[in-house]
Amino acid sequence: MPVAFDDVSDPLQPLVELPGVRAAADAARDALAEVHRHKANRRGWPTTAAEAAIRAARASASADGGSVDLPAEGPVEDPVLAGALRVGQALDGDSLKIMVGVWNKAPLQAIARLHLLAAADLVDDDNERLGRPQQGRGIGERLSLLADVVVTSSAPAPVVAAVVHGEILALRPFGSADGVVARGASRLVAVASGLDPHNLGVPEVTWMRFGEKYRADAAGFASGSAEAVGAWVISCCNAFEAGAREAKSIADAVGG
User: Fold this and answer.
1) Contact status, residue 21 vs residue 234, Cβ threshold 8 Å
2) Which of the following CATH numbers is that of domain 13-254: 1.10.8, 3.30.70, 1.10.3290, 3.20.20?
3) What was the pLDDT predicted at 127?
4) How far apart are the first and last CA of the chain?
5) Would you list the DSSP string of 188-203?
6) pTM surpassing 0.90?
7) Given a cut of 60, is residue 110 above it in pLDDT?
8) Domain ranges of the chain
């Protein structure tokens, strides 16, 4: 992982003590809790969650240079957007329950599934590459370490989500659709941890709108400096908080 804390049992806990991290994580948690209490989300959350999934998919595709345009009819032609929409479908409704169950038991299997969905139209005639991390660069070992950390850490959920997101971006384990996979995995952490149980937030909109900062912060995380890792975690927490505002706008439009 970018920052190694070899002498502690929970390697994410030192991140929580970095300046500003705990406050940002608390703000993200409170914002998402508040939007879950919105009238429209008390019983009508499946409708708002479905809209959130579409917005998240379009924004996630755009963050990787894909299209945001959904055709009035017929299949989606842009392969990045098509993959992001498949990931969104897997993280919505009954499919989400299945993915959360897989994530809680075997995070690496869930990540592989996200890649299979995200990259189905990006891998040229070689389906054996779907869901299979590349060999070399210690990718397998680092993914295994990440999986161990996410199932054992007691760090706040926004911090765990930020580390999962940042590590997949830094590692680029598949060589295709890694950004869509990273953002999908971040959403899975948010749901599985109870941070965003109905998957209402849309942090992807922030990552799309501020793409240059997003990429710079991700590069900082990959550098391994404690200051840069802390800045990445805070940035992700801020995106979750902004994503809750996006969720509120969806709920307001639905009414109730």
Assistant:
1) yes
2) 1.10.3290
3) 64
4) 44
5) HHHHHTTSSTT----T
6) yes
7) yes
8) 13-254
